[in-house]
Amino acid sequence: MSYVLVNDRFEQKRWKDIQVGEVVKVLADETIPCDIVLLSTSDLTGVAYIQTINLDGESNLKTRYAKQETLSRVPEKDIISGLIKCEKPNRNIYGFQGNMEIDGKRVSLGPSNIILRGCVIKNTDWAVGVAVYAGRETKAMLNNSGAPSKRSRLETHMNQEIMLLSFFLVTLCVVVSACAGVWLKRHQDELDMMQFYRRKDYSEGEEENYNYYGLGLEIFFSFLMSVIVFQIMIPISLYISMELVRVGQAYFMIHDDKMFDAASNTRFQCRALNINEDLGQINKDIYDFFLALAACNTIVPIVVNTSNPNEKLIDYQGESPDEQALVYAAAAYGFMLIERTSGHIVIDIQGERQRFNVLGMHEFDSDRKRMSVILGYPDGTVKVFVKGADTTMFKVIDESLNLDVVRATETHLHSYSSIGLRTLVVGMRALSVSEFDTWQTSYEIASTALMGRAGLLRKVAIKLENNLSLLGASAIEDKLQQGVPEAIESLRKADIKLFELASKCAVVLCCRVAPLQKAGIVALIKKRTDDMTLAIGDGANDVSMIQMADVGVGISGQEGRQAVMSSDFAMGQFRFLVPLLLVHGHWNYQRMAYMILYNFYRNALFVLVLYVLYTGFTLTTAITEWSSVLYSIIYTAIPTIVIGILDKDLSRKSLMTYPQLYGAGQRKESYNLKLFWVTMVDTLWQSVVAFFIPVYAYWKSDIDSSSLGDLWTLAVVFMVNIHLAMDVIRWTWISHASIWGSIIATCICVIVIDAIPVLPGAIFNLASSGLFWICVLGIPIISMIPRFVVKMFMQHCKPSDIQIAREAEKFRNSMEITRSGEIELNR
Asked: Domain P-type ATPase C-terminal spans what residues (predicted)?
């Protein structure tokens, strides 16, 4: 609610009801409800102090001024009549152009005369202004991109696989119905008495005919029946299971004491349940940028011994402190220069050491104002990296490759330089074999020339350094030495004028940008790359950015709760982002990825398509309707959800100690198209085993189809639960109860269903034979052999980072148990 002048008095009015032209009064510490041109304030000079932190994130106070022609007017007593002409509503929060006609005079209006919606009045008792933009036409609202619908990347890929299965289902139904038509045509003279399809009914003593609609309609009905029988391969229940798992994951994230902010007494908030697993896939692929910083220099790494003989430090030595700063920055982001020789360099990239051949280098010179290095990659490709001053680099950048990035980088460079930072631009391009050979020949000739060598080398470099792809820009701040601020203050007190060319400031990507521009930067990254983006902010000016990112995180700080209310996740401290991503993000991704693949396997296994080959394509089912329904509700649903919530492939300690393990989610190791097809092949094998072993075991016996269906039901439930048990990492009593309890519950349900007289079933007679138990126990064992062999081979011969870390955990835990046992013995 805000105060609006109505009939010579200010009355409260809702923000959404304020209209352009109305006079608004705002008191101290209140938020401006619309964009207003300032008319008067409590200060006699007409000045108002405002805080724009909700718009641009800046917490310092700014001043706005009322025009002399209006500052003495009292709205309750004086009639204020005039006309304001201004520009149409726009998103520019830093500009405003208009004029005001009052008392026969035309007064110009600018940015210093307007206060935007979202600003807060500070150190001013009251301010009065006239609304020029209201509602959705205010600059703040125009900078609000709106809340887009978000869906996790994993679920998006899952939907693609479901579409593949749906296409396969339709194809399967078409094939089966076509085969049914062929079968009916070939046996049209035998349909009266043929098994699975009798047109004659003798059950009532008198001969009657079943309805027969002709070949065409029978084929159509066969198609519809195929859809009903085979639709279980589409895991519709998976969506419900995913939501239940996400609720469980959110519970543990919220109650994680490591993300509890004692200062503000706030816990972590999970405000969006549909993107939990995206926390494990956040990335921004800037490999070449950081590789250029680590490689394109003359820095020499020096190994320094420490008091611990098992630990070594690397000290970077070089002629330029700027190069040292850039190499240290690259190391901080996981690109650590380990070794440099005249012919190669070794860089530790996210924990993996890679060797690059240094095929050539053009050092910095005052004419080119840049340097370049040619690197030979381990895979045989050759690239040239160039860094230098922006004035010369943009002349050799191919702007057509990425014009938007070039323009954005130019803007960033201007911002950096305006606050005294030293900037560099980095570019790169790949060299073909012919280009490298041409350069190498020219380089050898120039480097061996006795006369004019420097000029020749410069020409070779200029010819090489062109058509570059822009990688990015860097900005370096001069770190003030100890005592410098005190010295400057002393000189100022001595009335000595100083011009500060460099000062301490925060590292930023963009400076003084509007909220929608922040969102635009995120949108640009999403458009140009396939990376998962995360945006984090604590103010209203961050709302658009938070909503635009794949994952938006709000910090509940001093700038209000707008960022929190619009975020997907909220926390009290920025540092909580580390356990959120590295621990919970990793767990959520691993669990959800496995659960999706397991549900595809679980549902497809129960279809038993091959049965139609033995029933004349009549879609007769051996499994009872009750078992078909209960399969996804009681028989197999609970273990999937429990494991999806509780299972942990690695401990918190390992994930926090080795951040490189987070890369498993970025590389999509747990869910991808290859794993999907491998799972489908494994499902096909297990389905064949589950079908044919009972068929051939009871071949030429008098067993009925419903008894065979009970055997299949029990065998499949045993298979899927044993399959799940093989993959469980951390066993708990809940895991045991859900898996083994589901098997017991299935047996009970089958017995109860068969005990109902009106339902077919002969589990009691079937279970009395030893052959039945051989099939029930033998099918899971035989079906799991290939999976077990492949799993053991991969774990022992081609282990992943996760598996290696897991084995290290087991070894560490066993050592701790041994040490604790030794302590007990010593006591």
From this structure: 564-799
Here the tokens at position 93 are 């929060």
Token pair recorded at residue 371: 């340097």
CA 514 – CA 526 distance, rounded (Å): 19
Query: CB of 648 within 8 A of CB of 730?
Result: yes
* Beta-bridge partners for 709: none
Taking each helix axis from N to C terminus, what angle separates 673-697 and 705-727, rounded to the nearest 10 degrees? 140
Contact assessment for residue 708 and residue 697, using Cβ atoms and an 8 Å cutoff = no
CA distance 256 to 137: 42
Query: CA 791 to CA 797: how far, in whole Å?
Result: 10
Burial degree of 592 (CB within 10 A; 0-12, 13-18, 19+): buried
Type and span of the H or E element at 348: strand 344-349
- Residues 53 and 539 sit within 8 Å (Cβ to Cβ): yes
**C-alpha span between 194 and 524 (Å, rounded):** 67
472 phi, psi to nearest 5 deg: 160, -170
The amino acid occupying position 694 is P
Contact 774, 694 (CB under 8 A): no
Alpha-helix runs per DSSP H in 622-704: 625-630, 637-646, 652-657, 663-666, 673-697
Identify the bridge partners of residue 340 per DSSP, sorted by sequence position. Answer: 345
- Return the top range by mean pLDDT from 64-78, 154-168, 558-572: 154-168
CB of 666 closer than 8 Å to CB of 283:
yes
- Rounded to whole angstroms, the Cα distance separating 728 from 740 reads 13
Taking each helix axis as running N to C, give the angle between helix 733-755 and helix 705-727, from 0 to 180 degrees, rounded to the nearest 10. 180
Angle at 403 between CA 144 and CA 418, to 5 degrees: 70
For residues 524-540, give the mean pLDDT: 77
51 exposed, middle or buried (CB, 10 Å; 0-12, 13-18, 19+)? buried
If you write DSSP's letter for every residue of 560-580 in order, what string do you get?
-SHHHHT-SEEES-GGGHHHI
Task: For residues 36 and 20, give the distance between their C-alpha atoms in angstroms, rounded to a whole number.
Answer: 9
Cα–Cα distances (Å) from 390 to 327, 464, 468, 473, 475, in that order, read 19, 18, 13, 9, 11
Residue with tokens 């051949």: 357
Instruction: Determine contact, residues 41/57, Cβ cutoff 8 Å.
Output: no
Q: DSSP letter string over 491-537?
A: HHHTT-----S-------S-SS--HHHHHHHHHHHHHH---B-EEEE
End-to-end CA distance of the chain: 72
By C-alpha distance, which of 730, 734, 716 is closest to 641?
Answer: 734
Cβ neighbors of 40 (< 8 A, separation 6 or more) are 46, 66, 70, 71, 72, 73, 74, 75, 127, 128
Tell me the C-alpha distance between 611 and 613, whole Å. Answer: 5
Query: Residues in the chain, how many?
Result: 827
Task: Find the radius of gyration of the CA atoms of the chain.
Answer: 36
How many CB atoms within 10 Å of residue 691?
21
Residue 739 pLDDT level (bands cut at 50, 70, 90): very high
Cα–Cα distance, 140 to 148 (Å, whole number): 18
Cα–Cα distances (Å) from 386 to 333, 456, 458, in that order, read: 20, 19, 14
Tens digit of each residue's pLDDT (9 = 90 or more) over 196-244: 565 555 566 665 555 666 777 878 888 888 888 788 788 888 888 888 8
Six token digits for residue 571: 């926390």
Asked if 152 and 246 count as a contact pair (C-beta separation under 8 A), the reply is no
The overall pTM is greater than 0.85: no
The model's confidence at residue 489, banded by pLDDT at 50, 70 and 90, is very low
Distance of CA 759 to the CA centre of its chain: 50
The type of residue at 63 is: T
Q: Residue 704: CA atoms inside 13 Å, Cβ hemisphere, count? A: 9
Assigned token pair, 572: 């009290």
**DSSP code at position 396:** H
107-138: pLDDT as tens digits: 777 777 889 888 888 878 888 889 999 888 88
